Amino acid sequence: MFNELFVFGKQRNGSQAFGFYLFYLFTTVAISFVSGTILVTILVGFQLERYIGLAAVCLVFSTFLLSKNKSWRNFGWVALGLFLFNVFLIAVYSGLSISNTAMDFEMGNMLGRYLAIVICLVLSFLVLHKKNKLRSTGSVVVAILSGVGAYLLGGLLGLAATAYLTTLKPEK
Fold it and tell me: Which of 24, 29, 36, 88 is deepest in the core (most CB within 10 A)?
């Protein structure tokens, strides 16, 4: 059911297409939620001193981690990774604790809807490209309908069309 989710040219049966749908629906919801939360946090509750202090803590912590392993060549990447991960955690926490107005919710919802449209269209055309079906008018119409469905009901409807496209037989 959840096999080869990143092989877009594969012809799937019904249960595999449903697994593809569920996986990418969850992924779309997660990306939309996190992006909307971060956007609201940046626009509403951005506090620069949190991030500067966090950068210093990440540098100290990464120095401690790398001194234990004696591997200094990855110092910058480890520090940057820790910093970005902690910025993500602070943004989600701040977004959940600060943004409680209807305007903040609507702004995050709007971003999530637009991301769902983009994700559905990109996945649909990626499936068509890998199956060599970009010249098939019916398949292209279904791919465009996935974007329309995502506009109407988000990934819930948009990814249904994309999952259908994964059941089509690839052309040679």
Answer: 36
Could you give the CA distance from residue 45 to residue 51 in angstroms, rounded to a whole number? 12
Q: Tell me, rounded to whole angstroms, the distance of Cα 22 from its chain centroid.
A: 14
Tens of pLDDT, residue by residue over 137-149, are 999 999 999 999 9
What is the end-to-end Cα distance of the chain in Å, rounded?
A: 25
**3-state SS class at 70:** coil
Round to whole Å and give the CA distance between 45 and 3.
41
Helices (H), the chain: 14-45, 48-69, 75-98, 102-130, 137-153, 155-166
Which backbone phi and psi does 13 adopt, to 5 degrees?
-90, -175
Q: Which of these ranges, 79-83, 91-95, 96-100, has the smallest mean pLDDT? A: 96-100
Q: CA separation (Å) from 74 to 61, 66, 84, 87?
A: 14, 8, 15, 20
Q: Where are the domains of the chain?
A: 14-166
